[in-house]
Amino acid sequence: MAIDIHAHCVPDGLVSALAAGGRRLGVEVLRAGETTRVQFAETVTAPLEPSLSDLPARLAAMDRTGVTRQVLSPFIDLTGYWLDEAAGSAYCRLFNEHMAGTVAQAPDRLSALATVPLQSGPAAAKELAYAVAELGMVGAEIGTDTGRGQLDDKELEPFWAAAAELGCLVFIHPNAAARTRFPYFLGNFVGNPSDTTVAAARLMFGGVLDRHPGLRICLAHGGGFLPYQIGRLDRGFHAYGTDWGAELTSAPRDLATRLHYDTVLHSIESTRLLIDLVGAEQLLLGTDYPFEMGDLDPLSTVAAIPGLDERERSLITHGNAEFLLGL
Q1: What pairs with residue 248 in β-bridges?
Q2: How far apart are CA 264 and CA 285, in angstroms?
Q3: Where are the transmembrane segments (predicted)?
Q4: pLDDT averaged over the chain?
Q5: Sheet holding 110-112, edge to edge
Q6: CB 142 within 8 A of CB 153
Q7: Which pTM value belongs to this model?
Q8: From edge to edge, which strands make up the β-sheet containing 27-32?
């Protein structure tokens, strides 16, 4: 048994639906030869890789790598945060209904995370509740940046409250690293983990994790640089407390043990450090399918981690996900 909680998807039929009716929402499909992109207001996505929508290829890849179930998450460029609230809400509903349709084609192999309109905390809470109750989704994927603000903004309190009450997973994935900010694709190599680190630190120091202790949050890419720098965050908390406007009441090291982390770290030493910090109970298997920066042999990765007993390996490969997602 192996459950992959970090696997991206462009749901079946979504691009066609956007091409036919997306302009009323401010969304346009851009095609140039074999390349397809989506434009939200003034923001254009990266090219949509065909493998994001190819279900037979996805299932075949799962079979090759021993993955029993994928938890599909939206291709992070497709959040639609750049639309206004009404258009963003309508877009998310369209996206989620198509995602549910993809899951319905292989329900024994697939589950899904919703996308929600972070343009508004109440709107995001409403869509999350709908996706979980009506579409059978197991939570939501959100970006590290809302396009208008940050994850600890008070405007998003209704969303965090709803996620805690529902007990569903919130998977936080970087989306803010400007592709033109760094050369050499460092926006991915360095920018992505940096954005995750900042987002997690804001949830800590902004008091979100203390106000909503029931939240089930998973950080992509092993939490970015957070595990390695947790000592610095702890030192800052003990040195300054709530100076500088901080609202946390728990030490960052303690808060880090409440979070969950995927295994997409590309380093056995880094993964071992993460386990030593938070425990095997907090790790979830991930691949970042279908991208080259992913780990497409995740079971071998877990098998290579030194010092794990069989119970801990089972927790990481599937047990923790089964518990968190109610699978």
Answers
A1: none
A2: 8
A3: none
A4: 96
A5: 3-9, 69-74, 110-112
A6: no
A7: 0.97
A8: 27-32, 35-40, 43-44
**What tokens were used for 131?**
């996706």
Q: Give the percent of the chain with pLDDT over 90.
A: 93
> Per-domain residue ranges for the chain?
3-11+53-325
Please give the Cα distance from 320 to 317 (Å, whole number): 8
User: In angstroms, how far apart are the furthest CA atoms of the chain?
Assistant: 57
Tell me the pLDDT tens digit for each residue of 136-174: 999 999 999 998 899 999 999 999 999 999 999 999 999
The pLDDT assigned to 174 comes to 96
Cβ–Cβ contacts within 10 Å for residue 23, how many? 11
Is the separation of the CB atoms in 160 and 212 below 8 Å?
yes
Give the Cα separation of 43 and 263 in Å (integer).
Answer: 30
Vertex 166 angle, CA 253 and 162, to 5°:
80
Q: Judge whether 45 and 78 are in contact, CB under 8 Å.
A: yes
Domain 3-11+53-325 has CATH 3.40.630.10: no
Which residues in 125-161 are b (16+ Cβ under 10 Å) and which e?
A: bbbbbbbbeebebbbbbbbbbbbeebbbeebbbbbbb
* Rounded (10°) CA dihedral 272, 298, 9, 63: -160
- Torsion sign (Cα): 163, 97, 29, 87: negative
Q: Which residues 6+ apart lie within 8 Å of 274 measured at CB?
A: 222, 223, 227, 261, 265, 283
Model confidence pLDDT, tens digit, residues 211-248: 999 999 999 999 999 999 999 999 999 999 888 999 99
pLDDT tens sequence across 185-212:
899 999 999 999 999 999 999 999 999 9
Chain centroid offset of residue 178 CA? 18
Q: Do 204 and 255 form a contact (C-beta atoms < 8 A)?
A: yes
